[in-house]
Amino acid sequence: MFKSSLLNILQERGFYNQCTNEEGFDNYLYDCEKTGTPAVAYCGSDPTGDSLHIGHIVPLMMLRWFQRAGNKPILLVGGATSRIGDPSGKDKLRPFMTEETIAHNIQGLRKSFSKFLRFDDSANSALIVDNYDWFKNINYLDFLRDIGTYYSVNRMLTMESVKTRLDREQQMSFLEFNYQLLQGYDFCELYQKYGCRIQMAGSDQWGNITSGTELGRRRHDVELFGFTSPIITDSSGKKMGKSEGNAVWINEEKLPAYDYYQYFRNVGDADVGKCLRVFTELDMDEIRRLEALKDKEINEAKKILAFEATKICRGEEAAKQAQETARQTFEQGSAGADLPTIQVADSVSIVEAIFQLNLVGSKGDGKRMVAQNAVKVNDVVVSDPNTMLDLSAGQVKVSVGKKKFGLVVKG
């Protein structure tokens, strides 16, 4: 048991992987709780895409609980660091993006953040900042003199993101090697501007986080805290959020609410409890009851998981619509209104249709599924991948396996 109620929540729900100083962090949170002073924590995201996916939800949910406890979350978008690229978990240099792409992606990240955190005029309102604001005018020689002197190349070479690339004899540019200096500087800049003493992130960011805590100690004589969550994997060891090569996106223009709902509805039985803890706000007594269900009863727990996770990300109305579409599709055998839909002018082959509906990852996968008798049109198995859909009735329902459905509509 910790003194801080927040740290107890984070541990019980499976968010706690590693902390730079567990006792000090616990005392800091407890003191803030006792005095009613908001603690300040940040999480950073480089705008490499225009939406986050569910792999990013874990630190966002940590910040959500952090804010619910009366504390202030900061979302740092890497308008500067995205121009370099974080080498963590990467085998090669990230492609460079244009100014327009970075600006577009930052707007998408703002939308993702707003689904999980509260932005208002209160003392603990979430705040979005861009590190380009302080990096754009920094003189390179000044940066080397003022910041570079605090870093040991020997220690930098032991960082996992660097060591892994070197062990594999894969090239790492000097540009990427600098990344940990920039992220360390970010942490200290947020401390000076906003009193931020905590960085929360996934465990793959540990090296970058400790770069900041060390810089804070050596340059500003302050203890900054790093807190990481485990990388969430399914029971087979794969990172959650990847479905046949496609990310499960947070923003609705990237993924319909029904597909988001269905991702959680279809998690493995062994992953239900973990997902309920991380992706919902149900209380722990209810979670323990649901994860104890067995055999067919576990499907009821999955429905609750899907509804609660979708409600947080897409809103209660979207969750209800997705739930009703699933009920009509699976329990009544009809075509729910919110099924993934494509519109075609004349006709289309079954393989092309299931590919456009994102029911398969490629046309080759589609052909293989047809060969395995796993594809149906209006509940009738299709055995020829060249089958053209008959749209004389206006629409047809197609399915791949038992859980993926879509509509093809004549337009």
Oligomer classification: single chain
What structural category arises from helix and sheet content? alpha/beta
- Model regions low in confidence, pLDDT < 50 over at least 5 residues: none
User: If strands are numbered along the chain, what order do they take across the biggest sheet?
Assistant: 1-6-5-2-3-4
Q: Please give the share of residues in helix.
A: 40-55%
Give the termini distance in whole angstroms: 61 Å
Describe the global form.
globular
Structure description:
It contains 18 helices and 13 strands. The protein has 411 residues and is α/β, with parallel strands linked by helices. The strands form 3 sheets. Strands 1-6-5-2-3-4 form a 6-stranded mixed beta sheet, sandwiched between helices. Strands 9-13-12-10-11 form a 5-stranded mixed beta sheet. A two-stranded antiparallel ribbon has the order 7-8. The chain is globular.
